[in-house]
Amino acid sequence: MSFGDLLFVSPYLTTAFKTGVIALAEGIAVGRSFSMFKNDHIDGNKEMIAIGMMNVAGSCTSCYLTTGPFPRSAVNYNAGCKTAMSYVVMAIAVMFTLLFLTPLFHYTPLVVLSAIIIAPMLGLIDYEAAIHLWKVAISVIRVLLFVARPRTFVQGNLPNSMVYRNVEQYPNASNVPGILILEIDAPIYFANTNYLRERITRWINDEEDRIKSAGESSLQYVILDMTAVGNLDTSGISMFEEVKKLVDRRGLQLVLGNPGSEVMKKMKKSELIEKTCQGWIYLTVAEAVAACNFMLHSTKPNPGKDQEPAAWNNVCWLWLATM
């Protein structure tokens, strides 16, 4: 009996607390692991109560800190034990061994004792699950990569339609003269704003070089398809302001197509619309292209400074006014 030897002072209490947390975490983790093998349900609260009461009672009789160790549980599981009675038998066997059989095990090699523990655990390793988790980990890394470096596409017009799609995916999609249509395929956050700004700049440079080499009409409009942009933060707002300055220096007009409601709310609250693309927001890319084509055939050549937005943009502005 050791009830009178308990010391509830530092450093013993701190050590007991730290050890108890580790033991509790191990016990619940092991319980959940084996519950999956047996298709059972484990209640974390009951596990905590059981482990706590077990150690409170054991501490009065000089026992070690008790938890649900993985190796011993693995041996029990592989031996075919079904109920808690197996631990009663195990306790009696251990007590009998410690009292009477210890000299017989004195010369037993440690490798034999290790093999007794390791052998049952090998059968519990789920290699297929490990491979699956590895693939999931790779998927998570890919998702993070897509967030930091979202895909951007140049869109073109599919023949005999008002549909605009990625020109790499649809080779028959044709470019619209004087208009560059870019699709941003991710929310715009602090993690990807620098990449998006550089990528948009590169697309504009590539399009101007292509137009120059092909001898086509000069670039006048840059349309950003915002369909896949589900959200926007303050860094994204700053990025739009910088993109606006970029297109203004080149005498271009920035146009937005199909921005979501959450994006519109943040653009409105930050006054980004008035700063960047007031009057140049459309419900669809097709409407944005039609408006740009209308302005391209007008008498004023510089869309970024002199021209007013097309009349059919009233629908989008009515939608914005209701938000």
Automatic annotation (TrEMBL):
A Pfam family that the UniProt record links to this protein: Sulfate_transp
Keyword Signal: no
Membrane topology: Multi-pass membrane protein
Domain annotation STAS: ranges: 169-292
Any one cellular-component term (Gene Ontology): membrane
Origin: domain of life: Eukaryota
Signal sequence region: none
InterPro entries listed in its UniProt record: SLC26A/SulP_dom (IPR011547), SLC26A/SulP_fam (IPR001902), STAS_dom (IPR002645), STAS_dom_sf (IPR036513)
UniProt keywords, alphabetically: Membrane, Transmembrane, Transmembrane helix, Transport
Gene Ontology biological-process entries: transmembrane transport
Location relative to the cell: Membrane
Main subcellular location: membrane
Transmembrane domains' residue ranges: 49-67, 79-101, 107-125
Family of this protein: Belongs to the SLC26A/SulP transporter (TC 2.A.53) family.
Name this polypeptide is given: Sulfate transporter 3.1
Organism: Prunus yedoensis var. nudiflora
Lineage: Eukaryota, Viridiplantae, Streptophyta, Embryophyta, Tracheophyta
